[in-house]
Amino acid sequence: MKIAEVNTYFVRPRWGFVEIITDEGISGWGEAVLEGHAATVLACVQEMKDYLMGADPRKIEDIWTVLYRAGFYRGGGVLMSAISGIDQALWDIKGKYFNAPVYELLGGSCHDKMRVYSWIGGDRPSDVGAAALEKKNAGFTAIKMNATEELQMIDSYDKIDAVLERVAAIREACGKYFGIAIDFHGRVHKPMAKVLAKKLEEFDPMFIEEPVLCENMENFREIAAACNVPIATGERLFSKWDFKRLLEAGGVDIIQPDLSHAGGITEVKKIAAMAEAYDVALAPHCPLGPIALASCLNVDAVSYNAVIQEQSIGIHYNVGKSVLDYVKNQEDFKFTDGFVQLPQLPGLGVEVNRELVLEENRTPHNWKNPVWRHADGSVAEW
């Protein structure tokens, strides 16, 4: 079996899909995108076609190694996102070839199902108490929200108080044991992150996310020492070598590699195992589409330390199209009592609506994140 075609597609709201077709008629799908840079990543996939055409798609480890190591320059968001989408598609092919879900080829599941959470609140969160209660009534046992609007390195305490009021509203509406994940989104710098993390303790958050950016990963220990709340991070890291530095730096309790950014299934399976050796939990980042979500679930299934899965159905970014629009087997992605079943179909477990993908690609999106500024005119972290 040889790779005969490599196709790339833009699909709304902000995603990129990869389709790899073999000479035996088996096709696989991947999700290759770096949000805001979809065109760059898909161009990178096309650039890598020279290494793929004619190759045996079952030799995934070898292909991954060629794509990563045969290039003089390696790593980073664009190259690793392109490799991620290709890797997902290759695993999809291999699962279909052996007529088994990918996680069966990775050793079989150690979970029967995966807990999931739902986003609420948007970029600048408001009315989160009612939104969280709505999710609880829909069966979810946990939500995630952005903590705050933009914060300068030293900022006013009225913004801190506003965060506390929002989290208090969720706790009051949903009860003591409802899971609340609070995403600092890299908008907060160390001085205010220590303050906010400490003050959030009283609400027993499930975790705080990206209290500072991983560019400053040496600060996680200091923030961890300032509070008794689990710290999650890792969506902006791209390889096992990035996560090696994070795990060695310490202070982090949950890693969040993105299956469409951190090298796909092949690499994230290794990252998850590294984290397990540090007694660190896994909760993959996934504000993306159905192929990325299915890839996450296949890794979750075989990772003992997987604790909860992000998913983007209903997330504020999804304008025009959403996750299940591209899925024919939508029943396999049904959430029940805060859990989702493991993939059922061979391969990744997604039957992609190819006709809709082709239609979407006729008018490529050009999604960009907003640019925020502080009151003094300086650029704020989004």
From TrEMBL:
PROSITE patterns: MR_MLE_1, MR_MLE_2. It comes from Cuneatibacter caecimuris. This is Galactonate dehydratase. SMART domains: MR_MLE. The lineage of its organism: Bacteria, Bacillati, Bacillota, Clostridia, Lachnospirales. GO terms for biological process: amino acid catabolic process; D-galactonate catabolic process. GO terms for molecular function: galactonate dehydratase activity; metal ion binding. The keyword Transcription does not apply. Residues 125-230 form the Mandelate racemase/muconate lactonizing enzyme C-terminal domain. SUPFAM superfamilies: Enolase C-terminal domain-like (SSF51604), Enolase N-terminal domain-like (SSF54826). The keyword Cell division does not apply. Pfam families: MR_MLE_C, MR_MLE_N. Keywords: Lyase, Magnesium, Metal-binding.
